């Protein structure tokens, strides 16, 4: 998944900046077409597997890349966008996020919003996203927004980079009720943050014990954080696999966590 990510705080034109990133995506796909190919439907994933290619899904991280326009959402779909968060770290025309306040002393304050969720435009967007075949991503969304999505959708939706709030109170993580880099409390700011494989296993155990083996998949956000990363890029993923097996997960469990659960959701959502 290759995200069109816009930080609203530093963008004067989210739509233009979003389109520039789509252009970057297309240029990268063209330059590397011998090893990777864009996915628009589930059959494309199957074809890429047969051809020995990686699959690339264009996604969005910040619903405001559409500038509140359903027409622009449909244009992104025509360009191949197949998954999108409704918010990132800032309120937009669609919804309110949960957010983190970074204090001057280096500490963090977490604010989970249980009262402000989707706006009217947000409800219109999730309906159109389901109609088109764009996976709704609730990572960053407020708690109230999560339940607005839950109560007003019929297809599976995902939290692409969230963990278990019971394991760590970061507000991007999900409460027990929500479970059908932010793995521990060692820090959430820059180089003080840590990401350890044993913490990942701890979250996997908790979430699968609570919601079952079919709810869990990997969302790396590899270029989204800094800090001390024990799993710094995709080349380290075998270490996570080995840690899961050592912790008692079977090979079948690991396959679901690594790719089969994600493929199941894409198959259900992308094939209309």
Describe this structure in words.
The protein is of the alpha/beta class and 272 residues long. 38% of the residues lie in helices and 12% in strands. It is built from 8 helices and 10 strands. It has helices spanning 14-31, 42-51, 70-78, 120-132, 143-151, 197-211, 237-246, 251-270; strands at residues 2-5, 36-38, 54-56, 58-61, 81-85, 99-102, 108-111, 135-137, 194-195, 228-229. The chain has a 4-stranded parallel sheet with strand order 1-4-5-8. A two-stranded parallel sheet has the order 2-3. Strands 6-7 form a two-stranded antiparallel sheet. α3 (70-78) packs parallel to α4 and α6 (197-211) crosses α7 (237-246). The longest helix has 20 residues, at 251-270. The chain is globular. The model has no long low-confidence stretch (mean pLDDT 91).
Structure summary:
By secondary structure, the protein is of the alpha/beta class. The chain has 8 helices and 10 strands.
Topology record:
Elements: E1 2-5, H1 14-31, E2 36-38, H2 42-51, E3 54-56, E4 58-61, H3 70-78, E5 81-85, E6 99-102, E7 108-111, H4 120-132, E8 135-137, H5 143-151, E9 194-195, H6 197-211, E10 228-229, H7 237-246, H8 251-270
Helix pairs in contact: 3-4, 6-7
The succession of helices and strands, N to C, reads EHEHEEHEEEHEHEHEHH
Largest sheet: 4 strands, parallel
Terminal CA distance reads 20 Å
Biggest β-sheet: strands ordered side by side in the sheet:
1-4-5-8
Shape: globular
Number of helices: 8
Helix percent band: 25-40%
Mean residue pLDDT: 91
Percent of residues in beta strands: 5-15%
The secondary structure category is: alpha/beta
> Would you count the extended β strands for me?
10
Low-confidence stretches: none
Radius of gyration: 18 Å
């Amino acid at each position: 998944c290759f995200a069109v990510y816009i930080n609203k705080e530093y963008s004067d034109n989210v739509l233009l900046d979003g389109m520039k990133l789509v252009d970057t995506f297309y240029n990268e796909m063209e330059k590397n077409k011998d090893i990777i190919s864009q996915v628009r439907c589930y059959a494309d994933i199957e074809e890429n597997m047969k051809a020995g290619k990686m699959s690339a899904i264009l996604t969005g991280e910040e619903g405001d890349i559409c500038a509140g326009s359903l027409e622009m959402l449909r244009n992104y779909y025509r360009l191949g966008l197949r998954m999108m968060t409704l918010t990132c770290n800032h309120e937009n025309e669609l919804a309110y996020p949960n957010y983190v306040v970074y204090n001057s002393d280096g500490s963090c304050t977490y604010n989970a919003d249980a009262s402000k969720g989707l706006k009217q435009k947000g409800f219109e967007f999730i309906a159109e996203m389901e109609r088109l075949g764009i996976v709704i991503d609730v990572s960053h969304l407020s708690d109230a927004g999560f339940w607005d999505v839950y109560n007003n959708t019929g297809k599976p939706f995902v939290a692409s980079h969230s963990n278990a709030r019971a394991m760590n109170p970061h507000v991007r993580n999900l409460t027990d009720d929500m479970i059908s880099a932010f793995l521990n409390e060692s820090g959430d700011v820059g180089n003080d943050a840590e990401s350890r494989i044993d913490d990942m296993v701890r979250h996997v155990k908790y979430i699968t014990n609570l919601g079952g083996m079919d709810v869990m998949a990997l969302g790396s956000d590899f270029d989204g954080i800094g800090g001390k990363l024990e799993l710094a890029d995709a080349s380290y993923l075998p270490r996570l696999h080995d840690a899961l097996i050592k912790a008692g997960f079977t090979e079948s469990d690991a396959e679901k966590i690594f790719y089969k659960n994600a493929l199941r959701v894409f198959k259900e959502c992308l094939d209309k």
